[in-house]
Amino acid sequence: MSKISIKNDLVLNYIESLTDGTRVSVRELSAKLQVSEGTAYKAVKEAEQRGLVVVKPKAGTVRVVTEQPVFENAILATDVVRLLGLGILAGRDQLNRQIRKLIICDGSEENMQSQLKGQQAGNCLCLCGDRPELQTAILEAGANLLLTSGSKASWMQMNQAERSGLLILSSPQSAYSLVRLFDAEFADRSDFSGSGHVAAWMQTPDYLYYNDIIADWQRLYLESSMVKQYPVVDDELALYGGLDVWKAASAIPSQKVRSMVAEESRMMVVRAEDSLTEVAKQFILNNESMAAVVNEKQVQGIITSNDLLRYYMYTEPNTYEYAADSFLSRDVTVSDADTAVYHIRIPDAELKNIGHIEMDLLLSAAGSLLRQAGCESFKLESGTFFAPKHIVSSEGLILTCRIQNSSRNNFAIEAEINDDTATYAKAILIASALDRGED
């Protein structure tokens, strides 16, 4: 384990020393540093999580030195959370804090300290991947922490942040992707046009290589919400195919991934410049929940149904409060405190002119049930949405919405639209109250 760690650090240090724009190849790293290709590409994966490299069209994987924004006008943390769809792990009562500088912490602790020098640490937001020692150092320096690439905080770190009055936020996206979102959202606070494309919301994939073994996929899949297929790339990060997870689940751990990628396997593929509205339609039409984002076959990222849901919620944050209320009629004979059953009545003429009606109905029902539960003001934190069949007629449609779990300030809600013959849409939503204090 010690030797592997040393070799991994060797590759990472070499990548960090490269100049901006230098192409990074797994094969070349292996030959130059005398390490195995497996060690090289695992180091490249970690470098990507840290924001040291990124996949660019035609250029492949390249070293990037991302400029770290300093905002002329302070941005409230609550706006950052809402617009970027971030999770809040600690410091919920600190959301009115001003953020004046974004710092990417992809190097050493000394480098992080030098970037904080001369700054009000409490007004800085530090982006950091899966590096527990650096995460702790950021909090000890009095700065707020944004965990990237799905990294997790320990109980001790969250406790430390609460005691120190600091924020710990989280995102499944890479540091590089988040910086692009910061630039897109906060360069002009009134312009949302750029955020409606795949490029603004896609995630950097945790690459699964065709020469990996099934055990590598099992490790990734346990940490992923993806279903049905998983993107597989070759050494040049070109899309090799989609791993059929049902076949992979029955394979032995040492079996090669490429043996589970059938020739007829087809993955949904989109481009970075595609509109999220069109991607959402394709998800519904093809019964998909994930697509590979490619440029000339090379994988640039992935976009999932959760990314689309976050975009929908945070760029149209108030639609769930009223958009489809007029189409819902509550059945009081079968509803109770935690469950609401609605009959859906939509005029055919209206149905033809309304987009994403399934989402509107589910969100309206969830909002109504939360208000019935005494939660007048709330925010949707996250959720999953699945629409296997588009609504073409409201005849006989029922919407059932129930609170599955709740605490004083947090709710898990399950909602479903169906009739006697089919299920049209389902959603599981996580909401938090904004108008309730602590006991």
Task: Characterise this structure.
With 439 residues, this protein is α/β, with parallel strands linked by helices. The chain folds into 3 domains: 70-191, Udp-n-acetylmuramoylalanyl-d-glutamate--2,6- Diaminopimelate Ligase, Chain: A, domain 1; 192-306, Roll (CBS-domain), CATH 3.10.580.10; 318-433, Hotdog Thioesterase (Thiol Ester Dehydrase, Chain A), CATH 3.10.129.10. It is built from 15 helices and 20 strands. Strands 3-5-6-7-8-4 form a 6-stranded mixed beta sheet, sandwiched between helices. The protein is globular, with a radius of gyration of 23 Å. Residues 188-194 and 317-323 have low confidence and may be disordered.
The level-1 CATH class of the largest domain: Alpha Beta
Characterize the overall form.
globular
Structural class: alpha/beta
Number of strands: 20
